[in-house]
Structures are given as C-alpha cells and as structure tokens.
Amino acid sequence: MRAYIALGSNLGDRTGYLLLALSALSRLPKTHLLRLSPVYETDPVGPPQPLYLNLVAEVETALPPKALLQHLLDIEQALGRVRTEPLGPRTIDLDLLLYGDLVLEEEGLTLPHPRLQERAFVLVPLADLAPDLVHPRLGQRVADLLKRVEGKGVRPLVL
Questions:
Q1: Which residue of the set 2, 93, 132, 141 is catalytic?
Q2: What stretches of the chain adopt beta strand conformation (E)?
Q3: What is the average per-residue pLDDT within 51-56?
Q4: DSSP class of residue 62?
Q5: Which of 71-80, 118-127, 145-154 has the weakest average pLDDT?
Q6: Catalytic residue among 2, 27, 95, 101
Q7: Helices 142-149 & 120-129 angle (0-180, nearest 10)
C-alpha cells in the first residue's frame, strides 16, 4: 500500500532528527522508502516556539495502518519526543497522512489525517510528491487543497 508520512522537527538538531527518523523509516519491516519531498522551514502552529523543518516521505508498505502508526510512535519515542502539549515543540513528529485511499476512524487513528487539508506545512511537500493525488474523504486533488491555504508560512530550506 502506498502511504505518505509527514516529518517535522523544531528542537535541537532539526536536520539530524529528520535524518535519524528517515533512517528508522527505511528499516521498518515490509516497508520501502520510495521518495522524499524537499525540506521546508515552516512557521509553528500553536504557542510561540522555534521554526520547524518539514518534509513528506512516500512509502510502500505491507504493514496494516495501525501497525505502521505504532512504528511511527516508537520512532518518535526513541528520538526523545515528549508529548506535553498537543501543538508544542518537538524533537520529531511523524504523522501518517494517507494510507492508500483508506478512510478510517478508530481510536487513535484517523485516515486521512484529520487536519491534512488545513496545513500548508504538510500540503506543500505532499504536493511536491503527489499533486494529483485525490484526498479520499474530500474528493479533491492535493494541488487544489494547497491553493486554499496558499503555502503560508512555508519556505524552501536553503543550505
């Protein structure tokens, strides 16, 4: 199954945490890392905090969605993610955005990600990988969803 995972970091060595998370993703069972979007520096959502680095990874996986999510949570924990406030700063954040065209609502997992269509920091890198991908719940292309949020607060990372 094709899945898309958002990665973000705004504490410590942001680039280092993203690289560690990508390395961990590449070692997941029954999962192959296919493509990565460019990295963007983005404004935080929520309380005042440092700027984020964000990207999206496209994977092919035979893991069921709940198992994939558990692996993502395990990677976050291994990289020092502390869940104090929902929109607070973090060493790493891994969100399962889409899992094929699956629409799912169960405890602990909603697919597609419930705020995907509101977040420029997710839509910009997702559109780099799959602009014509259709949101399975909304029936709209990623490129069209991005037009609504206008990419505000999202800048290409220049090294």
A1: 93
A2: 2-9, 31-36, 40-42, 52-61, 93-99, 104-106, 109-111, 154-156
A3: 98
A4: -
A5: 145-154
A6: 95
A7: 150
Which residues are registered as beta bridge partners of 3? 59, 99
Cβ atoms 52, 13 nearer than 8 A: no
* Active-site residue, 90 included: yes
For range 90-118, the mean pLDDT:
96
Identify residue 53 by its one-letter amino acid code.
Answer: L
Two structure tokens written together for 34: 């296919």
In this predicted structure, what is the pLDDT of residue 159?
66
pLDDT tens-digit profile of 57-73? Answer: 999 999 999 999 999 99
d(CA 99, CA 90): 24
List the CATH number of the domain containing 17: 3.30.70.560
- Indicate the number of domains in the chain: 1
The answer to whether residue 81 is catalytic is yes
| Set 13, 43, 74, 90: catalytic member | 90
The per-residue pLDDT for 134 is 98
Is residue 95 annotated as a catalytic residue, yes or no? yes
- In which domain, by residue range, is 10 found? 2-156
Whole-structure pTM value: 0.96
Annotated active-site residue in 27, 35, 74, 81? 81
